[in-house]
Amino acid sequence: MALSLPPAFVKGGAESLHKQHLASKTSIGNRSFGSLFRSLPCRVSPSKLKVEDKNKRRTGFHTYVEATLADVVPTEKCATEYTLPQGEMWSVHKFGGTCVASSERIWNVARIIAEDPSEKKVVVVSAMSKVTDMLYDLVQKAQCRDDSYITAIDQVHEKHKATASDLLEGDDLNKFLSQLQSDVNNLKAMLRAIYIAGHATESFSDYVVGHGELWSAQILAASIRKHGLPCTWMDTRDVLVVAPTTSNQVDPDYVASDEKLKKWYSCNPADTIVATGFIASTKDNLPTTLKRDGSDFSAAIMGALFRARQVTIWTDVDGVYSADPRKVSEAVILNTLSYQEAWEMSYFGANVLHPRTIIPVMKNNIPIVIRNVFNLSSPGTKIRRESIMEAEDSELCVDSVVKGFATIDNVALVNVEGTGMAGVPGTASAIFGAVKDVDANVIMISQASSEHSVCFAVPEKEVSAVAEALQKRFKQALEAGRLSKVEVIHDCSILAAVGQCMASTPGVSATLFNALAKANINIRAIAQGCSEYNITVVVKREDSIKGLRAVHSRFYLSKTTLAVGIIGPGLIGGTLLDQLRDQAAVLKEEFNIDLRITGIIGSKTMILNDLGIDLQAWRELRKEKGEPADLEKFIQHLHGNNFMPNTVIVDCTADSEVVKNYYQWLRKGMHIVTPNKKANSGPLDQYLKLRNLQRRSYTHYFYEATVGAGLPIVSTLRGLLETGDKILRIEGIFSGTLSFIFNSFSGQETFSQIVTKAKEAGYTEPDPRDDLSGMDVARKVIILARECGLKLELHDISVQSLVPEPLKGCTSVEEFMHKLPEFDYEISKQREDADSNGEVLRYVGVVDVLANEGRVELRKYSKAHPFAQLYGSDNIIAFTTKRYHKQPLIVRGPGAGAEVTAGGVFSDILRLASYLGAPS
Ligand code: ADP
Ligand code: ASP
Ligand code: MG
Question: The ACT domain covers which part of the protein (predicted)?
Answer without folding.
Answer: 416-488, 497-574
